[in-house]
Amino acid sequence: ISTFTMSKCTPIRVFFKVIVWIVRGVPLMLQLFIVYYLPGMISGTGSNFWGTLDNSFYFDYGIKNGGSFLATVVAFAFNYACYFSEIFRGGIEGIPQGQIEAGQVLGMTNRQIFFKITFMQVVKRILAPMSNEIITLVKDTALARVIGVVEIVMSAYIFTSKALIWPLFYSGAFYLLFVGLLTLLFNYLEKKLSYYRV
Predict the structure, then answer these.
(1) For all residues of the chain together, what is the average pLDDT?
(2) pTM, whole model, 2 decimals?
(3) What own/partner pairs with CB < 8 Å and gap ≥ 24 does 55-60 have?
């Protein structure tokens, strides 16, 4: 998407900037509802538009998930693609033009300039905001329950309906542990790229 938002063709650039603006401005929960229900409303198939998945994939509590898992994947992918595109755009545009011009003076092709000069600097610049978005994505998966996906929080909630409170603590501990591991991974990557001074 960042390729289109940086396009030199004004109509394409404006169109995709508007798309990114809408996606970033509308709550993810609402986007889940739109992606899950709107195609079925337009086609007349209802929520069955996304088809039926094998319920054995989920914890078997008699909950009919249908294609809500697939709809969730589509909604999350599109939502975070828009967020990531802005991070990529900022990283690419943050590279000093003088470095690109120096590469051109040395006779490098645009491909060589991108991979030998620009790319790793961009990775260094965007790693921190990207890590933040990925961690947010992990926690946002809890929202999938609003369209019937049985994820970890919904599974814990099913147990609490049976007067058991400990599953909620376990689900919180799972998120905390998973986010902690991601944080360690991204800290390691930042140290590995520390020789790129930006």
Answers:
(1) 80
(2) 0.76
(3) 58/149, 58/150, 59/150, 59/155, 59/158
